[in-house]
Amino acid sequence: MQKKIIALAVAGLVSGVAFAQTNVTVYGVIDQSYSYSKSDNGLSGAASGTNKYSGLKDGGMSGSRFGFKGEEALGNGLKAIFTMEYGKDSDNDDSTTNSGSNFYVRQAFVGLSNNFGTATLGRQYNAASDVYGQNSSNGVVNAMPVNVLQGQASSQIRSQGGNARQDNVIKYVSPTFSGFSARADYAFGESSKNTALVATVPTGYSAATEIDTTDNGRYSVAGSYANGPFGIDVSYAGQSNVRTTYANGTTYDAQGKDINEWYIGGRYDFKIVKVYGSYQDMDNNTKVNNAITGSKLWQVGLSAPVGANGTAMLEYAKIDFDSGNYKSGTKLDGSNSGWGIGYTHALSKRTTLYTFVSQIDYDKDTASTGDWVGGIAAAGEKTSTFSMGVRHAF
Fold first, then answer.
1. Can you tell me whether residue 291 is helix, strand or coil?
2. Three-point CA angle 323, 325, 331, nearest 5°
3. Which of 122, 182, 202, 336 has the most CB atoms in a 10 Å sphere around its CB?
4. pTM for the complete prediction?
């Protein structure tokens, strides 16, 4: 009897919340796939062999998440909006260690919106990343080539390292006028002008002047045009006056430079096939740890409907590096490239099956061999990946 009373009381509380917050939406994604990858290890003689990975992987199409979003009408067309979104690796659990490493905040922002646009504050996607996915045949399928290579680029737009979502962001998104729209953001670096942050200052340098509140700020702007089957997006992103809190005679003088990156992408829908392409150029002038890096990444792709519920996709991507140690003169100016073929099949509006095969060819003089699964890639070798999975949105 007592349990029934408690249950009714809880139901009454939940009902009250529902009536008070009818504009709040709970949503989420669970995405699981089986993946297999292999690559020669790049070693010679008795040490030569093949690296392999086999296992379940979260987020073959999109990372698993759950969130809350909502809005409140304030009158005269003005609305308050918010999003709280959390990510969780759905194929393992870290509760035994209580580390929390697999549970994280994807987005958390609040803002105002009306006919003049939307302004938001908090952790959120930067403006440049908002337009990135719509110019790739696969969206953001993680193991397809452009996204693997994007993760190697130290990109300010989007990378597997997470630059797409940034902390301390103030962002504006305009309305759409005759197909044109614009957006911009600034992410505060929140560096402190504090001499105590620097343990050792080399001769000729002042900690008070070398570390300032404007250091490490990120920014991006993007413009878009969409009209019927055609769409094009351009963006510019960067990080200004990049600094770290450490200092010594070999690295301190390498700080205080900028990272800059521009991007252009487009698509055209011919009905029987849709074509995509993009190009981006990143220039990293920071010389952190005596290294200077740069990269150029381009991709082309196709997608085509298969029956009423299927979509086939094809993609090729290539990244060229301009990297090395600026003091020793060591250069890492190779290029990585790859292709991918994928297929998605919608079982319903919420549930999608998918499969893809991809191969990345790593130059022996490459600046990066990062891959999506297993960390098995090796310089001078090819990494092949097969994956199949299911994605459910709620």
1. strand
2. 50
3. 336
4. 0.83
